Amino acid sequence: MVRLPLTLAEIERGQRLGAVLRRARGSRSMLDIALAARVSPETLRKIESGRIATPAFPTIAAIAEVVGLSLDEVWAEISRDDRSGDLSDSAAPAQLAS
Asked: pLDDT confidence of 84, banded at 50, 70, 90?
């Protein structure tokens, strides 16, 4: 199966996803979150840095649960800029910035 190259919008959405998860993780270690979510620390690092722009759904669901985000919150955050055209990272709601 040939995988099509990601679009710019998909890459940017992946970067927003990483930023949302990184903010929600706060001061907790990447290792602790990865182990609790049952993903490798390397996978979490790549997602948070935007290097994996389209991670598997179960992976995101597990990480979101561990950091205390609902999937609705995650989706609202990462798709917000698709609708508005604003790509600034400062558009995050206050509860994710804490």
From this structure: low
CA 6 from chain centre, in angstroms, equals: 16
Helical H segments across 6-70, by residue range: 8-25, 30-37, 41-49, 57-67
Q: Answer for the pair 74, 17: CB distance below 8 angstroms, yes or no.
A: yes
Q: Closest Cα partner for 78 from 45, 55, 98?
A: 55
Which CATH class, in words, describes the domain spanning 8-82?
mainly alpha
pTM recorded for the entire structure = 0.78
Tell me the mean pLDDT in the region 2-8: 90
Using a 10 angstrom Cβ sphere, with 0-12 exposed, 13-18 middle and 19 or more buried, the burial of residue 30 is: middle
**Residues 14-39: pLDDT tens digits?**
999 999 999 999 999 999 999 999 99
Rounded to whole angstroms, how far apart are CA atoms 35 and 86? Answer: 34
Residue-range domain boundaries for the chain: 8-82
